Amino acid sequence: MLTVLLIFLMIIDVLAIAFTWLWRRTDWAALDEANSAFIDSDGSHSYYDQDR
What we know:
The protein has 52 residues and is an all-alpha fold. The protein has helices at 2-25, 28-36. The longest helix has 24 residues, at 2-25. It is elongated.
């Protein structure tokens, strides 16, 4: 049982390290700039706020 718990904790650690690595290397300013191209003058998002 202890071995299973240790393996589970090691998997969680690897996932946390990968998430942190991706989070720090994401260019959030570029994503915001690209997203701003889809926002209309009234503040609605042209993709997410479209009529379905």
